[in-house]
Amino acid sequence: MGMMLSGGMGRELATWVCEGSAAADLFAYDPSRYHASTTRDAAWVRDRTHESYAKTYAIVFPHDEALAGRTKRTSSLHNALAQRGCVFQARHGFERPGWFDRTKAADAKDGAPPPMLPKAYDYYGAYSAEGSGWRLDPSVDSVPQHTRHAYEEFINGELTFDWPASFELTATECAAARTGAAFFDQSYFGKLQLDGPEADAAMQWMCGADLEGRAAGDVVYTPLCNGRGGVEADLTVTKLDGGRGWYICTGGATASRDALWMYRAIEAGGFSLGGGGLAMHNVSDAYTLLSVQGPLSRTLLAPLVTCGTLDDLSAFAFSSMRELTVAGVPHVRCLRLTFVGELGFELHIPSTHAPTVYAALHDQGARLASESGLPVADAGYRAIDSLSAEKNFRHWHADLSNAETPLEAGIGFTVLPKLKRLDAPAFLGRAALEEQRASGLSKRLVCLVLDDEGAPPLHGGECLVRDGEVVGLVRSAAYGHTLRRIIVTGYADVPEGVARKKPLEWLKRGSWAVTSRRTEMHAATLHTKAPFDPSNARVMGEY
């Protein structure tokens, strides 16, 4: 593998050293993709290294999960979710909810742990008494192989290039979010706080979005760009009141890398972290992030919050934050946001009190479901993948990376206000973005929905075809359970000439298709806005 990759890796490492970022997406090779707590744990490193080696020549299925190094990092809601049938996924050393199988939750009897929890790593029997006889270290004679590992059986049901065993369970969770309400534990997100007299200036330098004049409680979605204009991270930032600076919330799988990038970007801007003018605090473990999404979310929350009325919650503007008391728990940062395209609220709860809030929400949800006849349920990241694809929301390291700019990725709205301001202070990537805006785009992200309801699953790497010509590859693919269609995104190469000045017009004039299984061609429809609820009425609470 090293022989194959060495030339390209050498080039990209040189670029990384000289320019501060590789020109290609090297996240899969970046040491900062690991959480510090995992790399400092010798047992975690040993077990994951063994499994990685054991799987070197295994088929790479799209929904496989590691069996080694599990339960290293967990949410304060982990036990409660497990009791409700959660099947967890390991991301960044964190156990995040993948999907729920409520029928299996009943199998846990007499206080025993639910069967869907991963067990201690058994090295696939390599060190059992019946195995090779090799020992991990002189103090360990053998590690017996599990006679039955229910979690592994769950994952084996996902090891297919067809629809996985969790497909219909995910559909149920998506239906709850679209018609009633769904609870998403997104606690593995990274959470940082930047404060000090220079915090506003540092944020303006680091963020692509214009943050000047933002009031306390404003929430802004922004990319962080490198010197070439490539997107190094995308996240939300919230202005805190009382001079407390900014609350930054970033993707869970990239949390450590994003924090490191921000430290370096701030220093590159001439700011001094820890010197009295600026301080960054990692508060990821201090808050449990529980997201309540769906048409019933406001009705569900109203009796539990301090304002206590639907009218007051209705006045809670989208993309804003309030500090509330929820179910008697004070200092809950409530952000009016969604990543699934529904009326929704993110509750950033002090972690020690999160189980209290979660239990109260479930009790209220059960009453509301009984009264309305609409579903209220837990949901996991499989559902998020489906719901967010229907809204054409971007995922970093899939639809976005350091190799693409916000203009190419179709999120130019985040940086254009700043680019149009002649008096705006300098910010990372500005010169490159201005040059690209003037010269035009050589590629542009497209969102396609396959016309055929019976199309087979896609997994990325398939061809994007415009008017019979291959113009790019699929970056991400997901099944939209509401639309009952496959949704793909990818970058289409834009030909030289006038098309680069107005790429959307060129994209719209074409007839689109996507390949699968090498020879099959599936007609597709281009969507320049979200395939589902393109006007964002539901996000605003208009049903």
Put the structure in a nutshell.
The chain is α+β, with helices and mostly antiparallel strands. Helix content is 27%, strand content 23%. A hairpin with a 2-residue loop joins β15 (463-466) and β16.
Give the tags.
543 residues; alpha+beta; six-stranded mixed β-sheet; 16 helices; Elongation Factor Tu (Ef-tu), domain 3; 27% helix
Report how far apart the termini are.
53 Å
Let me know the average pLDDT: 92
What is the strand content?
A: 15-25%
Task: Name the CATH homologous superfamily of one domain.
Answer: Aminomethyltransferase beta-barrel domains
Considering DSSP H and I runs of 4 or more, what fraction of the residues is helical?
A: 25-40%
Widest beta sheet: strand line-up: 10-11-12-9-3-13
**So what's the overall shape?**
globular
How would the blueprint of this fold be written?
Blueprint: H1 2-19, H2 36-39, H3 42-54, H4 78-83, E1 86-91, E2 94-100, H5 102-105, H6 150-156, H7 167-179, E3 181-185, E4 190-195, H8 199-206, E5 219-225, E6 231-239, E7 246-250, H9 255-268, E8 279-282, E9 287-293, H10 297-301, H11 310-314, E10 321-326, E11 329-335, E12 344-350, H12 354-372, E13 376-379, H13 381-390, H14 416-420, H15 430-439, E14 443-450, E15 463-466, E16 469-480, E17 485-493, H16 503-508, E18 512-516, E19 520-527
Parallel strand pairs: 3-13
Antiparallel strand pairs: 1-2, 3-9, 4-7, 4-8, 5-6, 6-7, 9-12, 10-11, 11-12, 14-17, 14-19, 15-16, 15-18, 16-17, 18-19
